[in-house]
Give the backbone structure.
Amino acid sequence: MPLKTPLDPYHEVFWKVENEPDFGLTSQTPMVRLPAIALATLEVREDLTKPWEPTTRGLVTEASMRVGIWHERGRQMSAWDMALTFQMLYFRGDGNRGGKVPLLGLDLLRCIDELGCDTLELWVTAPRDDDPYQLETVRLRDAVARVACAIRL
């Protein structure tokens, strides 16, 4: 009997699904502009009633599956912890080399939320638009869009 792994659903459909779109994964990530509270309060929300069926293949899809597996197993991680793990796993490094910031790992989190798998969402606590001293819980992609807009002004 073959050994079952949590990534089996991904491996079973790997050659049957389309490549994921280019999310512009970059070390020049807008994630570094988020306030520290946003990185510390990352929350994974997953609909466990629906089976996870990959519709794309690629780095972001695989990373999304890993986040879902960690969440199912009850592993609580901040955005920083996930970014360090992804930096070590996918981008050859301990995450602390160079500027001590796992830039590609952080940007991979942004890409995961942009991919928007139908069962997985990333949420953070961030300052409100109308009052930066008040906090609200928003999707990670919305928080990133806010800081990107603020920098352009």
